[in-house]
Amino acid sequence: MTPLRSKLVPVLLAVALVGVSAAGLRLSQPEGKPYEAIHGVIGEPVKTNNGEVTVTRIRVGNAIRQYGEVRDRTAGMFVAVSVTGAATGPKPLELHKVRLASGEVSYEGFELGAGFTAQPGFQTSVESVFEVDPAQIDDLTLELRSNEIISGYQERVRIRLGVTPATAAQWRAASEGVLEPAPDTTRAIP
Amino acid sequence: MRLLPIRRILFPIAAFAAVGIYLIWWVTYAGIHYIPRFSLRPPGASGELAGASIRVLSLTRADQLTDAKGGQPGIPDPGAVWIVAELEAVRHDPTKDFFCDTRLLGPEQRLWSTISLLQVSRAMPSCDSDLAVGQPTRFESIFMVPARYADQLSGIALMDASSAARTPVIRPAAR
Known about the structure:
The complex is a heterodimer of chains A (about 190) and B (about 180). Chain A is α+β, with helices and mostly antiparallel strands and about 190 residues long. Chain A contains two helices and 13 strands. In chain A, strands 2, 3, 4, 9, 12 and 13 form a six-stranded mixed β-sheet that branches. A five-stranded mixed β-sheet of chain A has the order 1-11-10-6-7, with no helix packed on it. In chain A, strands 5-8 form a two-stranded antiparallel sheet. Chain B is elongated and about 95 Å long. Chain B starts with 5 loop residues before the first helix and ends in a 5-residue tail after the last strand.
């Protein structure tokens, strides 16, 4: 082997290894996102690694009542989303990071603790409240994910709430009222 | 035909061996630290947790929890039952900070944590991290599990996230 060829082989080998590594990274992060979006619609269970998530009801209002008293009012609109999470597998279902999204606009939970944990074999139902801009509610989508300090390849559940541009006006009109969020409930999975 | 020099063959073999050793080490490390591993102790045997020996005196299934002050009994969530574990701990190593992380181990490594906010008063205290050294102390841990798993429980897992050793699972003595 000539000196030139003997130097060329390791260089080509190094380039090939870098190429394989880049392809591996690319394959493990499709579309450059470090998460997998699992899409669903209201009323139908969405399967995740550790269980199932179902949005069962949406209510709107412009005030929140708790313990018999009106506690908060808004110039915008409150959206209360009832979610049930069932830990059908051996691990708990922990979805503590919850938000509503409409296009580029994102709404965090009105109160801390909008998410939930369901222990193995249990299902937990919560009603999470969000304060939103009534002018920006088209295609409202609930996103739930775990709250990790160091996150790997995450699952993000995205459930469309059925607020289309055609029905947005009806939702805005329905928001003149007082909401009383339901308490959290837990039961064994039937 | 020209023979390849031995150095030229040994170098790639050494490189592959180094990569192989690294991969085996990493998979082993990840398996030890991220996949729960349990060690089921014989009935009645104790397990070690943070400088203390703990054993299970009894593991009882109940549909209600009695209130020591005569109040309303504690009712589990629909479809669930209470599992009451009576435990005894002896702290023998004062240099270690004792903590209580007892969990109930069920089928397919399902783990349930203790219920901390009970609506009833109990006669037996819950676990106290301030254990006296050398003095046997009894306490109870209360769990709520789906009724369909209540007959498939393995025992009490003594969880220590700081340890890479297998988690001991202790059970009451056979009757």
